[in-house]
Amino acid sequence: MKQITLHWWIIGLLFGWLAGHSSFAQTDSLAQSASVVSLSAITVRAIAPERFLAGQKLQRIDSTTLLQFRFGSLTDLLSFNTPLAFKNYGPGQLATVAFRGTSANHTAVLWNGININQPNLGLTDFSTLPVAGFDRLSVQYGSSASVVGSDAVGGSVLLGSSPVWQPGIRVTLGQQFASFQNNQTQLGVRYSTALGANWKLSGKTFAYRNQFNNAYLSTERRNYFLEQSTTAQRGVVQDLYFLHKSGRQLSVNVWLTDNDLILSPKDTIARERTRTQSARFLTTYETNHLTLRLGWIHDILDYAKGNFDLPSHTETDRFISRAEREFALTPIKANLSVNLRIGGEWSHYRTRTDGYVRPLIEEDRGDLYALLRLQTARWLVSATIRQAFVTHFNPPLTPSLGAEYRLVKHTMFELTAKGAISRSYRVPTLNERYWADLGNPNLLPERGFNLEAGLASTLVLNENLRLTSEATVYRNRVDNWTYWNPATNYHVENLQLVLARGGELTASLAYVNKIWRAGFRAGYALTRSSQERAYDTYSQDVVGKQLVYVPIHTETLNAYLQRGQTRLTIQTQASSRRYITFDNSQFFKGVALTNLLLETTTKLGPVPIRLQGQINNVFDALSFSVKRNALPGRNWALNVLINFSSN
User: Fold this and answer.
1) Three-class SS string for 549-584?
2) Rounded to two decimals, what is the model's pTM?
3) Neighbour count for residue 478 (Cβ, 10 Å)
4) In this predicted model, what pLDDT tens digit does every residue of 8-34 receive, in sequence order?
């Protein structure tokens, strides 16, 4: 109780100090103009990791790619556009990420700045995240715990919503028809209007229904079993933004989801049902210098086998509050700006789970952090630090330091060097700490130490042709990695020391003229991730071996050709073998998957209609789920988007 009271006192004192000052800020990127402008509520809307983690690789997914994957899940989009590796349990089933050789628990997933990882499991099921549900997507590579907090050990995935202030009403109706009797329906409405002389309103209402019947014509594919399953996904997204002429903004974001998965639905004895439901509410108030947030996330997980009437039930609530303030530490000058952003967060957790040591578990978590950013014409430097507080737990202090320096600045060529050093941590999941008999309340926090460096360049070959590229190398050491140890009946222990190291190379070439557009984007990643410490007799066999389901080599290639409103895109992802045993004695062979997408926009009277036809796994490659079942082969989908506008 004294510890919690002290945390409350510290956070309250900080928030009180935050409320009494004013500040200024600068442009958000070294790649933009180096001139400094007075901070405006309209110009500073970036999620903190995008502004205060200099030196680390950041990949922003463009709007064209988001539109192409509008009927896909986040798993599909990231698999073909990033080096992230996914553990896929089957179509419409659980999909978890291995980011830079780490586990699913080591990637933070942020929605409008709030971590939405399920706290009992410590991860996010990417198959339940529809691409059409958000407006911005960025991937932050490397540990960013000093800015994001727990879980950001391998990297972070940042999802965001954005207002559109153009007056009017725009309605989008979408329908997908796909192989195996699968279908999706989407309805979205965007609207913006003035509210009197001083306020504006911008909003988005989006609803979706996805039905994956997976009605395969055969139960086998090339002598491998095809698992029967059905998945029903439902969701609603509601975003409201109220903007005052002074720059103040109040926003309300709501995201309701319901995911119902049934395995072997026709077998009343062996069938399994997993139903996850989430309600996410976030309110944000922003001025020129102050950001206040209040949030509530409610997660439900029900699991049943055979008899669905009495499922195992987990229900968790998170109540979140956060305050941040930004200060300009130097006078406004043409070539220099130094900004400090300080903040604090407090969250209260309540969970009821059948398998825990007590029916109700409650704990408090708090964070204090400071984010410093210095920018000149050539330099961008950030220094950050965070201290977390958790009931009956002691997370470490996590600092980071990063820098970017523009080596060459020319109208035709730019070259930037990057480097960063950072510490990270992960608070064990609620399951790891409180599960009856197997959980361990005395677990230590996992501690990571990340180093990375890279070069990024832009070359303008002529007025129509532009080449961009980036190369990055990294080394991430994670100690006290938790492990459900089979040698002790799967009791959770801090046993593993994992070392992940590797490199990434990306290149994009774009050609544009008055009639044609063409280009390609290629990516390659080398990932070596291995256990480096023997903790018992059996672990001797796995020291130095590649972690399971983490491919050493991954490649992506996206090429397109566009004339007018018609665009042909080829998407390819390839990976080397994936080991499925810890001693690397068994593995899945490497596989390459290729998709073909043809899209165009036409009109039915004044109504624009976007048509997308896609063939997935064009060459019918054989790939496997984590459960060693075959995944479906070649399949197709037809997408229709109808747009209505009041303008």
Assistant:
1) CCCCEEEEEEEEEEECCEEEEEEEEEECCEECCCCC
2) 0.91
3) 27
4) 443 443 434 444 443 333 334 343 333
